[in-house]
## 1
Amino acid sequence: MSSKSKLSRSKYLSDVACGLAKGDGTVVVMDSIPICDCCQKNPAFMDGKTKMGSWAYMCVSCSAVFSIGLGVGKGQQLVLRSE
Ligand SMILES: [Zn+2]
């Protein structure tokens, strides 16, 4: 896991991300991490179902808002292959 913490907000967000990841969520190994479909700015943290019902790549901050969680049929965390 990366431990970049530029903003205090990112500490909260990483806690959210860890909480999501601790469940029975599955993980997808990727050759490269796509850009978040929601903000089109940050690298995606997961590929998952949104509260709107569609699937999208979401960064940590967008997943905290839009994701319904990690798990089969809900979302998978994206992990770089080199990890
Ligand atoms: Zn985003």
## 2
Amino acid sequence: MKKVKASETLVQTLKNWGIDHVYGLPGDSIDTVVDALRKEQEDIEFIHVRHEEVAALSAAAYAKLTGKIGVALSIGGPGAIHLLNGMYDAKMDHVPMLVLVGQVTTDVLNTGFFQEVNLPAVFEDVAVYNKQIDNPETLADVVDEAIRTAYKEKGVAVLTISNDIPAQAIKASLEAETVKFEQENPKLNEANIQEAVALIDKAEKPVILAGLGTKHAGPELIAFAEKAKIPIIHSLPAKTIIPDDHPNALGNLGKIGTKPAYEAMQETDLLLMFGNDYPYSDYLPKKAACVQIDIDPAKISKRYQATVGLVGDAAEIISNLTAKIAPVEERKFLQACQENMQEWWKWLEEDMTKTTDPIAPEVVMANIQKIADKDAVFSIDVGTATVWSTRYLHLTPENDFIVSAWLGTMGCGLPGAIAAKKAFPDRQAIAIVGDGGFSMVMQDFATAVGLNMPMIVVVLNNQQLSFIKYEQQSAGELNYAIDLPDINYAKFAESCGGIGFRVEKMADLESAFENAKLATKPVIIDVSVDSAAAPLPGKIVMDEALGYTKFEIQSVLEDHRFAKMPPLKTILRRFL
Ligand SMILES: Cc1ncc(C[n+]2csc(CCOP(=O)(O)OP(=O)(O)O)c2C)c(N)n1
Ligand SMILES: [Mg+2]
């Protein structure tokens, strides 16, 4: 066997797993790995970002979009610490990530050397696999196991590599092989299926709450819901599992969810929790029977007491249920929910057609919708952008819609768009971000320009941390530390070599979007939006309502116009 560098075996292992790009930033303690990647740049692209946080957030977003492992690389010490945010995003949204970080050389390891940080200790909480490499001979095997574990555990595998180890010569073959991860799904439990079928057949007001565990099971979910005439509510990140305009769709649930979804949940007699780990118990039924599907047995009854737990693959279980349940000709509960939903859309339409200045964020959503391709990929930042995008965009399963769902980190929008262009170069990528979130990562717009990744970044520029403004108000606190001095993001775009549109008046909004659609370079549309636009909860739960009252902004409660929408209970009375 011929002698090769250990770093070559590392890179070969990445190739064997079909890894074709790495997000990162080089530096002394990871230089030997970077050098090996340089030699294989035809097969593995090095996406050189300007901040390691963007590397990790992009790697997480790539995994959310494709199901394939995302890879981030950095030096040890400060660079490794910068990666943490994206690593937690991957951990908490349950997607596979591989992180390669450098470390000081073994001759000075454990001496408190320059940039020496105890990385295995730093990563202990975030990682499902966390090894310090001390033997060049086994490097490739450890990389292989790390990737396999990341896939199996849907989490982050970290390798901390002293820079001298990959440079060492070892006896190894560099033969290419194709490696794939295959997981066997648990076998269905027929007795539990029968029990679930009986509950579904008996229920009068069943409701589905679908999460990302049904991402691959959209058609099965729709067939099930249509056969039994059941409304479908989704968790926020599961927005594109069924079309927003599907007749059974009631939108998402929660603080930024729809009123029809909240009300259906309060009325239901059978909650069908399909592939989600929904944490906000205030929004779940007070008391209902529950059929829960999850691939992970530990999740059954974790959030809501399941009458029947079905462990396994959602697509398989749902189609099994569909075959066994009785068809329902007409379900009054669904009809009432549908009417409620039509009112909701009508109410939203009114917001989307406002023509006055200052520009309403809802109108920005209408313009985004107008120029969006049928299969556009949306990457949404955390802030009011999350509310406007989730609530006002009408999407379908042809779209993708990614957010930082469980970590909820600001700054995820732009990295997600970079990952989208890497995952699907031919699809339109649209990032919808706030000025606060964008300015946390904006330096990497230059990365998108450098990589020639056409994308549209819509900055909802309200010169404040608006989401927090309302959070403070709903808690009855006075507003504090929420102002953001203005930046001209359009000029910034141009200084990076991209295209910028600054929109301060309604009159300029439409043309900016039309021009952005035609651009072949990354674009920022910097829209000055109404800073008083309140992202009101679909249903204000009691403690929030009390907070608003304490703050004495009665107008928020008075102006929200929910009063115009009859509650589901009233609509139901007409149907029953
Ligand atoms: C990294 C991080 N820091 C702080 C927060 C808390 N937080 C949530 S939304 C938000 C405000 C977002 O402001 P901006 O991006 O300007 O959007 P806006 O709400 O103004 O539309 C803050 C500070 C967070 N989620 N993530
Ligand atoms: Mg803002």
